[in-house]
Specification:
The protein is of the alpha/beta class. It contains 5 helices and 12 strands. Strands 1, 3, 5, 7, 8, 10 and 11 form a 7-stranded parallel beta sheet that branches.
Length: about 230
């Protein structure tokens, strides 16, 4: 809990500092001290700030790799704006797809190395140009893999129970979306990477069911031009 609070405070500090700097520059522009029209050349700095936030907010390799990439792409695009680098976003954008694939492979390797899946998965969804809706009632749930390409999936785990204390789901969405519903006494830890997309933890709005032992669901994967939401 302490580390989470520290990472949250660091992210707030970075975001607040960035907002203050932008506000000060705009204020100076109102008084004629800065040519605000030239600020557009610094738009890639947002990639750099996002990368720093990613690195500081996680202890896991995948978010930090993504953060380093954002800083690198931000630096290259900034150099391009000042004619110090020949290629702009119109040439470099496929790098986002390449890095997304690398991160997806890295998470798959990391999952196998750490043994987070034991044998056969309780749920496997592969949705391409379509949708899938699954209701899992297993009382020995230990995880699974969800994948959507130009499609979507809905996974209902509200009647399921985790075997042990935690389960891992690799939930990936490319040009699509996904929704995972969990019981009230489950906690959720999102480790997914968003590339022009994201993961949403929409749990916690309902009081937790304290009559059952707490369980943790870890959600990993890559959301590229799409999103994955976890609800209860």
């Amino acid at each position: 809990m302490g580390n989470c609070m520290k990472r949250s405070a660091t992210n707030s500090l970075i975001a607040g500092l960035a907002i203050v700097v932008v506000g000060l520059v705009l204020l100076l522009g109102q008084f004629g001290y800065v040519d605000v029209s030239k600020l557009w050349h610094f738009w890639p700095v947002f990639f750099i700030v996002s990368g720093i936030a990613k690195i500081s907010s996680s202890n896991y390799a995948s978010p930090r790799i993504w953060g380093v990439f954002l800083i690198l792409i931000g630096a290259l695009l900034t150099l391009h704006e000042f004619e110090r680098f020949p290629f702009g976003f119109d040439r470099l954008w496929p790098l986002f797809i390449i890095v997304g694939g690398v991160l997806l492979m890295w998470q798959a390797y990391d999952t196998r190395r750490n043994g987070e899946y034991s044998g056969e998965d309780d749920v496997t969804v592969f949705s391409v140009f379509g949708g899938s809706e699954q209701h899992i009632n297993s009382q020995k749930f230990h995880g699974g893999q969800l994948f959507a390409l130009f499609g979507g999936y809905q996974l209902d785990l509200t009647q399921a129970e985790i075997e042990g204390t935690q389960a891992v789901i690799d939930a990936t969405s490319v040009f699509g979306g996904g929704e995972i519903r969990i019981p009230r006494h489950w906690n959720v830890l999102v480790r997914g990477i968003g590339i022009f997309g994201g993961y949403g933890d929409e749990t916690g709005k309902i009081p937790a069911d304290t009559t059952k032992p707490p369980k943790t669901l870890i959600v990993k994967g890559v959301a590229m031009f799409g999103g994955v939401a976890v609800k209860n």
